[in-house]
Amino acid sequence: MTVGNFGVVTRRTVLGASAAACATSAIPRAQAATPAKGDDAMVPVALRINGKDHHLTLDPRTTLLDTLREHLRLTGTKKGCDHGQCGACTVIVEGRRINSCLTLAVMHDGEEVTTIEGLGSPEKLHPMQKAFVVHDGYQCGYCTPGQICSAVAVLDEIEAGIPSHVTHDLNNVAFSDEEVRERMSGNICRCAAYSNIIAAIRDVAGEDKA
Amino acid sequence: MKTFTYERAESPAQAAAAALSRPGARFIAGGTNLLDLMKLQIETPAHLIDVNRLELDKIEATNEGGLRIGALVRNTDLAADKRVRRDYAVLSRALLAGASGQLRNKATTAGNLLQRTRCPYFYDTTKPCNKRKPGTGCAAMKGISRNLAIMGTSDACIATHPSDMAVAMRLLDATVDTVAPNGTKRSIPIADFHRLPGDRPEVESALAPGELILSVTLPKPIGGTHIYRKVRDRASYAFALVSVAAVFTPDKGGRFAFGGLAPKPWRVDAADAAAAQGAKAVAEAALSGARTTRDNAFKKDLTARTLASIFAEARA
Amino acid sequence: MKFDQPATINPIDRGKVVGIPHDRIDGPAKVTGSAPYAYERHDVAPNAAYGWIVGSAIAKGSIKSIDSRDALAAPGVLAVVTHENAGPLGKGSMNTAHLLGGPKIEHYDQALALVVAQTLEQARDAAKLVRIDYAQEAGKFVLTAEKDTAVKPPAGFGGDPDSAVGDFAGAFGKAAVKIDRTYTTPDHSHAMMEPHATTAAWLGGRLTLWTSNQMIAWAVKEMALTLKMKREDIHVMSPYIGGGFGSKLFVRADAVLAALGARAAGRPVKVALARPQIPNNTTHRPATIQRIRIGADRNGVIDAIGHECWSGDLPGGSPETGAMQTRLLYGGKNRMTAHRLATLDLPEGNAMRAPGEAVGLLALEIAMDELAEACSVDPVELRIRNDVQYDPEAGPGRPFSSRKLVECLRQGADRFGWAKRNPTPGQMRDGRWLVGMGMAVAFRNNLVGKSGARVKVDGKGGVIVETDMTDIGTGSYTIIAQTAAEMLGVPLEAVQVRLGDSKFPESSGSGGQWGANSSTAGVYAACVAARGILAQKAGFNADDATFEDGMIKSGGRSVPLKQAAGREGVSAEDSMEYGDLDKAYAQATFGAHFCEVGVDMHTGETRVRRMGGAFAAGRILNPKSARSQVIGAMTMGVGSALMEELIVDPRFGYFVNHDMAEYQVPVHADIPDQDVLFVEELDDKSSPMKAKGIGELGICGAGAAVANAVYNACGVRIRDYPLTLDKILRGLPEPAFA
User: Fold this and answer.
1) Which residues of B touch C725 (CB under 8 A)?
2) pTM
3) What subunits make at least 3 CB pairs under 8 angstroms with B?
């Protein structure tokens, strides 16, 4: 059981092995400002990523996405557009999925980040990762980590009763293919494995209900 | 992205004071619009004041029976708030029609109000744009303008305001509560919050330099049937061609606000007054004085037809 | 190995591994984010600096001056590469425009400089400091305006741009039923998810590129031409490619500039195109104007069919071959096709998924729908009446190798419930939705190409396949492993596949839906060679030996494969080459698309409600990944029908909507469940695999099925793609105003 970020207790253990790290981060926040001087003002940033603490010194312009990919070499999180238009960079921060391209690492100082690497490994796949393989929920694989992070969070959001654009009764949120399609629409797949991705998510949601 | 210095604000007053004292300072909250624009150097702040840790993330009942929504309440939380779902469904619906789940998890109430236009020429720093670079001209007016405004435009700018949330806020007569660098607080009716472009399209809101949004207040619920209809080319994750927020009351009354039509959430008293006469009368009143281009003339017909659709839905 | 006679029974026919819907073997790497793409090679280039491309702000003209001083002085900047300091550069034979422009500028956002810095943030910022003074020239950007200046292009990839059989004009003039319509399709962007990206490193005079490219051998050749190097000094690796759809057939600016930047900076450099640069910096599918004339009898049987296609490209470019399928698809004694090419100064037009057919069928299959209506013949029946089992230009002497279009039409219609369609438009309602069904034929030429591979069997019975073939999401890793497992009688898990490395044998690469059939045929050839060596080592005659269950068997005796391989292992290399079976037989893939849409009676918004199809493409090597190719292509067809359009601003000569917010492609919510049926077929004239291409067939006709469904739903016939609501509203009746 994990405590989701939406104020409800969910039974879904979406974060797999790193779920235990979902509690509020214990790492102290770094100093809150850059010196008021020139171009090389760097900022200290502490992040807990996939359960592991990282203390970095960054150009404040560094996005969370580039921090992951270039500084921490966690390249599972992808850069598709770098402008919040595709969803390939989706990661889970403090229990919520966000576009890591449109946020600065320094804005997340002291926070908990789960990336695709934190969900599972080739040797030990997260149930959602396994379902994507079984249902061929990808082709080129480039949007895939974002789709999977999003899918994991979407099931949490439905369980937490967060409504969506297609929820008929705002006060009665339930799993349906239509709900998942709408909620996953921030993750573009140009290869268009859409039908298969929905099948994979449906599969995981069903397993969880059993 | 140009270099900037960064500070994390500790209190609203300190944030506002810092914003005034530091040249080129900008607040950053969700960042989903500002960072997009900074990467393209459309926005080039010299100093960023991170307001995310200010405790402005609560939704509280007001003494007047309404709701005070903290500036930092995320779109997801606002849309999912039980009171909003129950009493201000049009606001939930508008929020949920916007952007994507990821963006709504990050985007804030105040930031959403301050979203900048999606006009393609505003986004291209090699092109003229009076909003981005005052005095350079408007490339859109004689350019590709299918998505651009037909109401409230000027000879300087035909950009639209891209927000869905703000359309519902306008419909609900929200007020925007702010604090100035000198500590003065004020409330701005949302009708006055967004500016029409006139000859200063770069000035988009009534906020003074350094002024920080603290909350948005909704008056007490008005009941009725709440509808938000967003029309777009694809089924999700797209800005509106036209959107209509409406509340229909049992006495055949109604109020209407529009997105995708104007540089600000568009609402016309005469359109509300025409509610009892039906969709066509509402459309005529709302679209009075429309100035269209070859590309966006369809928005008039589309607005009228969308109104017809929601009238049918409301009366079904 | 040469394939010049129809295939006979061979080990692939056993179907123990090939033809089984195995999960992708590269799946675990992809779903965990551990598959390394071109920009992610910290493992091999840990100290790479960052390059940022500066694109041209004008469409045509020249650079008067370029001033890099401020950029060079900016923090962290290591080098600025421009035409002035790049040294002499050649031009690849497959690119129309230069990948580093200057002083001449050939199109908007053509790369004019690369800024290299220690960090991405520094490079991106400093790129804005490169000051370029332009001498602008007037250009031509609008196809409709230049249509009358278009000329007959030289014979190209598809052969002669014109064809004529019989007396088209005479027969069309006399036809009882005539369709004469003009259709337009706009420019399209590939919009693959991974931007073009390259990491480049030099060691002495040798260049290593980790890039994202569909055609490894072409990449080596083109880089050698561009940098005036020897091919053997260039090593290209592209093991994972985040989508291509034709945009990564040829090297692009990222590869050339990463190489130049790495040389200038004296250390590895990586470069990715920024998303907003991609539509104008790279290639796109060109817009077309297509005139289609069909003359038929009252039963819809075609006697005359003509298809003309106009497109535009940069000087020296090539046409969009939108009329090509019309030479092969339907019967009719009197025929003509023509392609005309105008000169435009837009970015370079080039191949995008199913070049030719993808847009050709968008037009032709609406025309067929219009013919069906004019003759009051069911659209499915109309296609069946006009089926032809041979190349209709060449006559019965050139039959199709296999053509199961009629089976696709019948089985697809049954599965979809086509019989429930009301042929009169605007008759079906579901609440506020006007509901309609449409269909269209899928056709895509089958291409094969020489492809090689190396197969190694080790002393533990493990198999390694190496080829420079690429997997752009197509499933190459898996079907190659399946092929080797089948040929050598080992389980799939025993096979490792290594792709996308120019040190491996040259393959067909990925494009034109030739990759799956061609590359597995190459692996087949290498496996035949390996079987020969292994059988000999086991003391068997190779022709009599059976490879199964990890054993080599012959005449009641069996030897374990690993024993035959021995401690030293066995390595064999061969390639498959082709004779003239594709000349003796017309070879193509076929299918039928069916679609149900809803059109909002008030707003004109169109949403696809159901979609399905039946397809015949020879042996389906892996039904799971093949189905994915088809549904993905169908979705791209939905995009072309409903939303995809690069919009030209003729004042500035560029595509205005050049990012993923403004160039819209379908999202999850646009796409319902999709049903795919593969009609059983083996094509023994195509390759020993008896397979054909499947990667592009699914887009061919899919958009037309949507367009025809829109017409059936609401009675508005739109001939200019995409079918956006503003066009639909012009034809919708005024709604009841409450």
Assistant:
1) 231, 233, 241, 298, 302
2) 0.97
3) A, C
